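Incident log, entry 3
Record: Ribose 1,5-bisphosphate phosphokinase PhnN (184 residues)
Problem: checksum mismatch between cached and fresh output.
Input:
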Amino acid sequence: MAGRLIYLIGPSGSGKDSLLDAARPRLAERGCRIVRRVITRSAEAVGEAAQGVSPAQFAVMEAQGAFALSWQANGLSYGIPKDIDAWLAAGDDVLVNGSRAHLAQTRERYPASLVLLLTVDQAVLRQRLIARGRESLADIEERLARNARFTAQLIADDATGVFVLDNSGPLEHTVERLLHCLNV
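Fresh output:
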């Protein structure tokens, strides 16, 4: 039996990396692999434990077919290694930190994917983005506005195909909701 692609999406600052780190041991117990993304951000940058590559390296990897999924967002390129196809074929569930804007392409390639939308209260998200210190206040406000529009549209268009996880409260509660969604 083939495994299932679990596609985690949500705005930057919603806590995707924290959720994945907190859930990692329990996901491993279930045979679920968490994929390490390739990003054109330096490996020293604060954030997820991704493989940092230069834009030129990313372009070469993409041209060689190294990625099952790839996209551009916020001035960076992101890639999901092609290894996931072998893992899925072997029956492993595979959790990917994905992109909301790339959801349609992901569903086209992996129609049986489980989509999880991680949300967080806008005030909490604003504080997290400010504390991260990567963007100007104007950029943060634009990001918040874009997030509100995107989330409202996604939920309105696809209420039955997306599981919403609110990460405004304790992380342990979000981990439990994530694990519950995997049983659906």
